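Reading is simple: the C-alpha cell line describes the chain's fold. The lines below illustrate.

. . .
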Amino acid sequence: MWVYCQTTDDPEKVGEYICDSNFVEECIDKKSRVFKDESEDGCWLIQNYPRNETSAIIYRVSQNIIGIEIDDNCAVNVIEPLMKKYGFINIRWLITK
C-alpha cells in the first residue's frame, strides 16, 4: 500500500511521528525505530524491534509530498496518526493487489 501525505515536514520527522504515535510504554519490546536507508538517498525506514523487520519506507516525492510504502497489515497504524496530525484532506492512499 502507498500512502501520500501533503507536508513540508522532513521524511525522518514524519517517520518519528508515526513511531511515537504507535508506541505504548507497556509494550517496550514492540518499539519501532526510524533510520536512514544508506542505499537510497533521502529514504528512511521504519523498522520493528526486536525482529528488525522493515514495516515502512518513507521518502520525499515532491517539495510538498511525502510517500510511504507500507504493508497492508499496518496501514491503520500509519494512516490514522497522519490524519490526526495533517488532516484527512492531506492524506491519500492507494491499494494494489
About this structure: The chain has two helices and six strands. The chain has a mean pLDDT of 82. Residues 22 and 77 are 7 Å apart (CA to CA). Strands lie at 2-6, 32-36, 43-48, 53-62, 65-70, 91-94.
